[in-house]
Design a protein that fits this description.
This protein is of the alpha+beta class. Helix content is 27%, strand content 22%. A 5-stranded mixed β-sheet has the order 11-12-10-14-13. It has a 3-stranded antiparallel β-sheet with strand order 6-5-9, with helices on one face.
Length: 308
């Protein structure tokens, strides 16, 4: 028997939706219909973080306990109004045609595909060598966790400030924290990579008991990895306001430095866990990450971020 389908109007587009009762998160009962409802409600807020960018879809057609797959190539069966952007991938040595998630209807369309997570790149539109921001991805190695990431995020903030670069944190919706620093043009990816590497290596040299820059698993227990390699034209990072495919429908949400300080002082990382309803409530109060992108700073020189 064919799955029952319903139609939904989003921004003047008509979408055909199916399997709304399918449970994606067994621990909470959160369904595909709940996922679609969240992305429909957050659409106007999340789109500025996606528009014009190559976006990887993390699809979980059997729910978060099933197989997840990263879909970089935009599906051929996409609606004609879903645009794409081509990016050269040096690994496989081919051009990848990513989806562009440019409007709320496109966000809901990805949810219909059970694309729980949306991962945009750092470039926008067809400009191949103009990253819009620096991203510092902090990933803890057990037994380190979110609280250790807060300590490192504050070190990142202070080091970037030394170079005149403002930044804002967001919880990843998983184990870590990401710090985003909006950049004023002109800025190329080669210069961005050099700055990101200098930042990571400088902090690791100053705090070797807390920070590593090498992904080797044997080096990471009890420390926080600064993944500087995300600052590349062919890498993508989970979007602000994206749901995550974890045990619960946590969301990657912008937070304030005061909130990080309070969680660290209380020793309570759960203060920084936000599920879809909580994320919607926060978004209704405004999007601090969007405000940060309205006032970008120039990329600092490499020597402003080294050890010391």
């Amino acid at each position: 028997m064919a799955a029952e389908r319903v139609t939904k109007e989003v921004g003047g587009r008509t979408l055909s939706l199916s399997n709304l009762d399918k449970v994606l998160y067994p621990e909470t009962g959160f369904t595909k219909g709940d996922l679609i409802a969240y992305y429909a409600a957050i659409g106007e807020v999340i789109v500025p973080h996606l528009r014009g960018r190559p976006t990887t879809l993390v699809r979980c057609t059997e729910g978060v306990e099933g197989q997840k797959f990263f879909e970089k190539m935009c599906p051929k069966h996409r609606p004609e109004w879903v645009r794409t952007v081509d990016v050269w991938a040096p690994g496989p040595k081919r051009t990848v045609r990513y989806c562009r998630v440019d409007e709320p209807a496109a966000v809901v369309w990805t949810a219909q595909l059970a694309a729980i997570e949306l991962h945009p790149g750092l470039l926008r539109d067809q400009d191949r060598d103009t990253p819009t921001h620096l991203v510092v991805d902090l990933d803890p190695g057990e037994p380190a966790g979110l609280l250790e990431c807060i300590e490192v995020a504050k070190l990142v903030r202070d080091r970037l400030a030394r170079g005149g670069l403002g930044c804002l944190p967001k919880v990843s919706g998983s184990k870590g924290i990401q710090v985003l620093a909006p950049l004023a043009p002109p800025c190329g990816f080669e210069a961005l990579r050099d700055v990101a590497l200098a930042l990571a290596e400088g902090l690791a040299a100053d705090h070797p008991d807390l920070i590593v820059t090498n992904m080797r698993k044997d080096l990471r227990p009890g420390k926080v990895l600064i993944d500087w390699s995300q600052n590349s034209p062919f890498k993508t990072t989970v979007a602000t306001w994206s749901v995550r495919a974890r045990v619960r429908p946590w969301v990657s949400v912008p937070v304030t430095w005061d909130e990080l300080d309070a969680a660290l002082a209380a020793g309570d990382p759960d203060r920084l866990r936000f599920e879809a309803p909580q994320a919607l409530a926060r978004a209704a109060q405004g999007d601090p990450m969007a405000e940060a992108f309205a006032a970008p700073d120039p990329l600092p020189p490499v020597d402003a971020l080294g050890p010391g």
